[in-house]
């Protein structure tokens, strides 16, 4: 989440008048993330008891044509017991609006906090929640191409060019070498499904060791199912700078996923390569944002080199230790 588009309180209050949400009490911009503009709204509620919502304005990186996919996916998952925030319709049944020249939606607020230092038990709960999501996604009829697949990584790398070396000397060559490796080794025949594709700790809400919500589905797409676990692995089992690997978290994450869904032998064998792909994907997007984020945007830039360190780890890791096998 982030704030690129600043919306006056008066405009937000007028926007809320389309809903049974009450009047605006407060609106606070949410700075985390790099995709959309987000506000935490507090309202009087339709009965005066008070309520919270998330207001999201979709910026250029999210295609408005993809929004029905995200909306229908969250309805599908929610109907099958997943703790996900649903899009709220106005009095005319419309979920998608326009605000400050941007597509905009009002979204359910879920309780819970995002973690900064997950414990093994919290990693286990997250692995189980991801497995439950994959089970709930079975039968979802829509598909969405992953624009950040291997071809997308090549495109991002080309757009960054030699500017990689402004971040770290030799990074451009390291990216080229990794792309060549993944071109030769990326698995093509593993099971595919709808995936979250961005299940970082800040996209999991928890109370204690219990997951209370999975949020921010704007990268969700159809891709290799085990790649979703690899993305989650890369986000949950390292220190923030990527320099330390926590084997206890990794084992717990894998155990939780095995309990709720599990991996095939082929998925488990390919897992180190999927983790290398996940690391390169976030190295590339972070590098692109590092180079191109406007200086006046209320957004926290994230260190690309934290994912270079993960990539180096996965390239030399003992595959058995990745999931505690």
What would your notes on this structure say?
This protein has about 325 residues and is of the alpha+beta class. It has 2 domains: about 10-110, Phosphorylase Kinase, domain 1, CATH 3.30.200.20; about 120-325, Alpha-Beta Complex (Aminoglycoside 3'-phosphotransferase, Chain: A, domain 2), CATH 3.90.1200. About 45% of the residues lie in helices and about 15% in strands. It has helices at about 10-15, 65-80, 120-135, 150-160, 165, 170-185, 225-235, 245-260, 265-290, 305-315, 320; strands at about 25-30, 35-45, 50-55, 85-90, 95-100, 100-110, 190-195, 205, 210-215, 220-225. Strands 1, 2, 3, 4, 5 and 6 form a 6-stranded antiparallel β-sheet that branches. It is globular. The two termini are about 35 Å apart. The model has no long low-confidence stretch (mean pLDDT about 95).
Major sheet summary line: 6 strands, antiparallel
Question: Helix- and strand-based class?
Answer: alpha+beta
Q: What fold name goes in the CATH topology slot of the largest domain?
A: Aminoglycoside 3'-phosphotransferase, Chain: A, domain 2
Q: Tell me what portion of residues adopts beta-strand conformation.
A: 15-25%
Which architecture of the largest domain does the CATH hierarchy give at level 2?
A: Alpha-Beta Complex
User: What is the CATH class name of the largest domain?
Assistant: Alpha Beta
- Backbone CA Rg: 20 Å
What does the overall shape look like?
Answer: globular
Number of domains: 2
CATH superfamily of the largest domain: Aminoglycoside phosphotransferase (APH), C-terminal lobe
Oligomeric status: single chain
User: What level of helicity do the residues show?
Assistant: 40-55%
- Low-pLDDT stretches are none
Number of helices: 11
Q: Can you write the helix and strand succession as a string?
A: HEEEHEEEHHHHEEEEHHHHH
Number of strands: 10
Cα-to-Cα separation, first versus last residue = 35 Å
Q: Can you give the mean pLDDT? A: 93
Keywords: Amino-acid biosynthesis, ATP-binding, Kinase, Nucleotide-binding, Threonine biosynthesis, Transferase
GO molecular function: ATP binding; homoserine kinase activity
Pathway: Amino-acid biosynthesis; L-threonine biosynthesis; L-threonine from L-aspartate: step 4/5
Catalytic activity: L-homoserine + ATP = O-phospho-L-homoserine + ADP + H(+)
